[in-house]
Design goal:
0% strand, 14 helices, heme binding, metal-binding, 2 domains, monooxygenase activity, Cytochrome p450, mainly alpha, Cyt_P450, iron, 339 residues
């Protein structure tokens, strides 16, 4: 069980409050269960009146259990988890066999909003289709190549300086900084230049910390982090501060882009290319698109989800690559000969 001291990071909490929390714990759990059962009944009633596209039929893989769902299947699959997912995709002919669900969306809401990684149904399908179309555009590919090449050169210069000084380096942190810079520029045109300056910007620190603190919601009991959130304590208090920093940066850029588009003539004079501008171009050309897609909060969710998708996978893959190379001198020697 988590220590009560984990409820705070910097704020002092009286011992009396901690003791009272323990005494009230059984009541809180019982109350949460009762509220949960009522909300489940309401959701079922509401779902009956939903439109058919909103209610995606989900297949159930073998060994899907109550409460645990496919957790045991994931554990048993182990290193073959990719094959397990591919087998189920083939078995169900591409139909969805898992959904994120309301609990996942609630946990991720502050960070990812209603982005593609946090929603199901029509919202997910729509964003998936638009994003898939963006990746077919030459403009986005050219933007990605130009940005990644430039930031790779900056990373090369940093590593060269480290080698010249014969110093050790936290490679994952450095690669995370590299991927954050590259994909922040690709997503919404934010140029941080923290690699060359050798400093971490508030946005980058807030983004890294917000992801870690959001992950804690999946580990800690719901009532625990909800109580922290309500009282402004511990991890939840810090998470809200980080979300404010992220929103202040992203929303200011989104609003500036929208303002520029409002006064820029449609004659191709605006040559700014990033995912946000291309997304706006796409929905502007389609008369069937909802006007709500121009909402700054919705656009914030779109670019933040793309940033999460690009920066984390890139940093983790590169870090694992270099670790694997360090464990295999023979492969390293072959690569050096090839270079």
């Amino acid at each position: 069980m988590l220590p009560l001291s984990a409820m705070k990071l910097e704020h002092p909490v009286p011992h009396a409050f901690a003791v009272t929390s323990l005494l009230l714990l059984p009541i809180v759990i019982q109350f949460s269960r009762r509220i949960g059962s009522l909300s489940t009944s309401k959701k079922r009633a509401d779902s009956d009146s939903d439109s058919e596209p909103e209610r995606r039929e989900v297949e159930r893989p073998p060994w899907t259990l109550p409460l645990l769902h496919n957790t045991l299947s994931f554990i048993l699959a182990g290193d073959n988890i990719h094959e397990w997912i591919a087998w189920n995709c083939e078995r169900f002919e591409g139909k969805p066999f898992t959904v994120k669900g309301p609990q996942y969306h609630e946990n991720m809401k502050e960070l990812l909003g209603d982005g593609v990684f946090a929603v199901d149904g029509v919202k997910w399908a729509h964003q998936r289709d638009v994003t898939r179309g963006l990746f077919r555009m030459n403009e986005l590919r050219e933007c990605m190549v130009e940005a990644v090449t430039r930031h790779t050169m900056a990373l090369h210069d940093v590593l060269k300086q480290i080698c010249a000084r014969n110093r050790s380096v936290d490679l994952y942190k450095l690669l995370s900084c590299f991927s954050t810079e590259a994909f922040a520029e690709i997503s919404f045109g934010l140029k941080m230049d923290c690699l060359r300056a050798n400093k971490e910007l508030p946005f980058q620190a807030a983004f890294d910390r917000a992801q870690r603190l959001t992950a804690l919601r999946f580990i800690r009991p719901r009532w625990f982090w909800k109580m922290q959130q309500r009282l402004g304590l511990g991890a939840e208090d810090q998470l809200q501060l980080d979300i404010k920093e992220i929103d202040a940066t992203v929303l200011s850029i989104v609003q500036r882009v929208l303002a520029q588009r409002a006064v820029t003539p449609e004659d191709g004079t605006d040559k700014t290319t990033n995912m946000l501008s291309l997304f706006l171009d796409t929905i502007a050309k389609d008369p069937t698109m909802d006007e709500e897609l121009y909402d700054p909060v919705h656009l914030r969710d779109v670019v933040v989800n793309f940033l999460v998708a690009g920066r984390d996978t890139t940093a983790q893959a590169l870090s694992w690559f270099f670790y694997s190379i360090s464990q295999n001198p023979r492969v390293e020697a072959k690569l050096r000969r090839g270079i």
